[in-house]
Each structure stands twice: as C-alpha cells, then as structure tokens.
Design a protein that fits this description.
It is a single chain. This protein has about 220 residues and is α/β, with parallel strands linked by helices. It has a single domain, classed as 3-Layer(aba) Sandwich (Rossmann fold), CATH 3.40.50.300. It contains ten helices and eight strands. Strand 7, helix 10 and strand 8 form a beta-alpha-beta unit. Helix 2 crosses helix 3. The protein is globular, with a radius of gyration of 16 Å. Bound molecules: adenosine-5'-diphosphate (ADP) and magnesium ion. It is an enzyme of class 2 (transferase). It comes from Gottfriedia solisilvae. It catalyses: L-tyrosyl-[protein] + ATP = O-phospho-L-tyrosyl-[protein] + ADP + H(+). Keywords: ATP-binding, Kinase, Nucleotide-binding, Transferase, Tyrosine-protein kinase.
C-alpha cells in the first residue's frame, strides 16, 4: 500500500492528522483504502477485537503519522478504536492530538493510575487515546510486564480495534516485546529511504513475536 505525500494543508500539528482535517485529500483516500484492506483482513476472524502494533525498521519512517491517521480513518467508519502510544523512548501522539501527557501508559504500568482513568477521549468520535505517560528509565521491562499483557487484553475487550505506536525495530527491543502481546504487526516502510536489508532484518527480528499482517509504503517526498 502506498501513501501519497500530503500536497498542501492548513494543519499545524507536529504529526499530520490529515484524515481528520481534510477528508477529501488524496492521502485520506489512501488511508481509506488501507482501511478497506485491513477490515477485510479482520472480518474473517471470530472476534472483532483486534490488537495491532505499528512499527518500522528505523525512526522517522512514518509510524506515528500512519497509526494516527489510520486510527482516525477507522473511527470515522464507526469503529471503537483505542490508540496507544507505546513509544516510551520518543512519545509524540500527545502532541499530534494536542492533549496532556501527565498520565498515560507508563503510569498505568507502574501502578500509579488506573487504565480507565488514563484514557483520553479525542475530538474524533469513537477514538480514544492512551498517551505514553511520563518518561521512565526502564521502558522494555515495563512493556514486557504481565500488566502490559493484561492492559492489551482489557483494551481488546472494550474496543473493536487497538492500534499501538512503538519505537523502531532496529533501534530498540521494545516493539518485539509489544508485538508478542498483539494479534498482528503492520510494518511502515518509507518509500525511497528504507533499505531493503533493514526490512529483511526487521522482519526477521519480529517474525517469532507475532504475525506480519501488512506493510504500508509511506511515500513522503
Ligand atoms: N506521508 C507523509 N507526508 C508528509 N509528511 C510525513 C509523511 N509521513 C511522515 N511525515 C513526517 O515525517 C516526520 C516523521 O514521521 P513520523 O510519523 O513521526 O515517523 P516515526 O513515528 O516513524 O518516527 C514527521 O514530521 C511527519 O510529519
Ligand atoms: Mg513516532
């Protein structure tokens, strides 16, 4: 799947929420097309509750942009969606949605906040957000904990789809750890930038953690 570059926009968000702000743009069409493929993929399953990690071989290849727009696109279709910022190394989803990150995933995993209390209702109907929460010194341990698994299971019962943003595969072990709690993984690759060797290596690293359900080719010119 190829995502076209955003041509022009009045957006000021750090991460472009183009799907929410310009439903008619070319890129919004592309996200709808990804959504169609994705829905046909999960339709066959008995349970409609599905958990997916979105990651990429390297940083800056479009994970956050893709997962945020994809989440919006699914919510616009009437799905109940939870978007989780599990990039505890470089959290950005709270900037995209312009919300506070005072509490979030890290606070829940540290037992400081209840999951329900950390959830934020975004301006997009049906789309809830769990931001990363304050920085911690042991992200991989937190993400590998039983509490993380329990959190994802609880989320999958409450939401139609759970999408999880994460750090890059080749940089940290976090995404491999998160992937082991998820039903599937979507790999974002940047057109003209991501090296094929990195894609192969990333696939190898995550292959025994979960199923690779799709690759999104992010065309950022
Ligand atoms: N398709 C795109 N069109 C325009 N800008 C993009 C696109 N994809 C990503 N970007 C921009 O590139 C930068 C890195 O993208 P981001 O989604 O934050 O990557 P990652 O989460 O993988 O580190 C951001 O400033 C983002 O707005
Ligand atoms: Mg990111």
């Amino acid at each position: 799947m190829r995502i076209m570059n955003r041509k022009s926009s009045h957006l000021t968000n750090k991460v472009n929420l183009v799907t929410a702000n310009n439903k008619r743009s070319k890129i919004s069409e592309e996200y709808r097309s990804i959504r169609t493929n994705f829905l046909s993929l999960i339709k066959d399953k008995e349970s409609q509750s599905q958990t997916f990690i979105i990651t990429s071989p390297n940083r800056g290849e479009g994970k956050t942009t893709t997962v945020a727009n994809f989440a919006i696109s699914l919510a616009q279709l009437g799905k109940k969606v939870l978007l989780i910022d599990a990039n505890l190394r470089k959290a950005t989803l709270h900037f995209s949605f312009k919300v506070s990150n005072y509490v979030g995933l890290s606070s829940v995993l540290l037992g400081k906040t209840l999951f329900e209390d950390a959830i934020i209702e975004t301006e997009i109907q049906g789309l809830n957000l769990l931001t990363s929460g304050p920085d911690t010194y042991n992200p991989a341990d937190l993400l590998g904990s039983t509490l993380m698994r329990t959190l994802i299971e609880a989320a999958s019962e409450k939401y139609d789809v759970v999408l999880i943003d994460s750090p890059s595969v080749l940089e940290f072990t976090d995404s491999k750890i998160i992937a082991s709690h998820c039903d599937g993984l979507i790999l974002v690759i940047q057109w003209g930038k991501t090296k094929s060797n990195d894609v192969i290596l990333a696939q190898k690293i995550i292959s025994d953690s979960t199923k690779l359900v799709g690759v999104i080719l992010n065309d950022r010119k």
